[in-house]
């Protein structure tokens, strides 16, 4: 069974089918319920986590493929909410229902890590796979721009 690091802690997973999606390992085996189930086919982005710093849909990543990798969930992004994206989300009052927000935040954090000065087109392109049923896209964009600016300081 795979050995990996989740939120900075080494984890050895035993007695799991290696085809089990990471999402269910996080939620059911490790009780990290911040990562949400949305669609189960990697289309909505609610289940986004970072694998070695890259935003990935945890519903479509088999746990057996993660040997030696580093996984970061919303719980590990910043436990005290001090990550620039988390702070901007609160300041801009982004969430409405909030269901998609952990995936949105994880994608936004990956965007800013890879592109510290995103413009509207870069945000739209990178975040396009994250669906918000409430339509808070203008606030999401504003929060990403604000977080990117804070991260650069």
Automatic annotation (TrEMBL):
Q: Which residues, by range, are in coiled-coil regions?
A: none
What are the recorded GO MF terms, alphabetically? 2 iron, 2 sulfur cluster binding; isoquinoline 1-oxidoreductase activity; metal ion binding
Q: Where is the signal peptide?
A: none
The protein's matches in InterPro entries, at most eight in alphabetical order, are given as:
2Fe-2S-bd (IPR002888), 2Fe-2S-bd_dom_sf (IPR036884), 2Fe-2S_ferredoxin-like_sf (IPR036010), 2Fe-2S_ferredoxin-type (IPR001041), 2Fe2S_fd_BS (IPR006058), Beta-grasp_dom_sf (IPR012675), Diverse_Oxidoreductases (IPR051452)
Domain 2Fe-2S ferredoxin-type span(s) in chain numbering: 2-77
Which Pfam family, an example, fits this chain? Fer2_2
The EC number(s) attached to this protein equal: 1.3.99.16
Ordered alphabetically, the record's keywords are: 2Fe-2S, Iron, Iron-sulfur, Metal-binding, Oxidoreductase
Q: What name appears for this protein in its UniProt entry?
A: Isoquinoline 1-oxidoreductase subunit alpha
| Naturally occurring in which organism (per UniProt) | Engelhardtia mirabilis
The beginning of the lineage is:
Bacteria, Pseudomonadati, Planctomycetota, Planctomycetia, Planctomycetia incertae sedis
